[in-house]
Amino acid sequence: MKVKPNNYIAIEFPSRSVNEGLARAAVAAFAAQLDPTLDELGD
Question: How many domains are there within the chain?
Fold first, then answer.
């Protein structure tokens, strides 16, 4: 049986427009590892 490792991170920063790029980059880095389909990205 192949065990899939947990890969998670907790990031907390102020909700300001200057931090939007950081938030998007962090989410994109984790989403890229999943190799999602376009339908999954839409969700």
Answer: 1
